[in-house]
Amino acid sequence: MLAMFFWAFVIGGLICVIGQLLFDVAKLTPAHTLSLLVTVGAVISGFGLYDRLIDFAGAGATIPITSFGNSLVKGAMQEAEAHGIIGVLTGMFEITSSGISAAIIFGVIGAIFFKPKG
User: Fold this and answer.
1) 25 in a structural domain
2) Any transmembrane segments, and where (predicted)?
3) Domain around 36
């Protein structure tokens, strides 16, 4: 059990370190960094390796933004098998819609209750 926590911390931390290095060393903007990490997660998922990473690292692989790329590919592949090419588009939205909806709802709630500084 302790090893599971250790590897989740190490893998999740490595993903965060990579993101921070992209900010600091490569001087990428937050949008570029997030897009790159989502794309890397999607590519790793496309090769079938992200599920192995999740089995090994647990939350260390499911919490970072790379997991969003994994979710997009997983949803697209599942729906493509069931509905063909149109399933690629609908599958991405179907599997990620709850997370995106939650982000929008909590963003609106935060905007209602808190004033921006500026």
Assistant:
1) yes
2) 6-26, 33-50, 85-114
3) 2-113
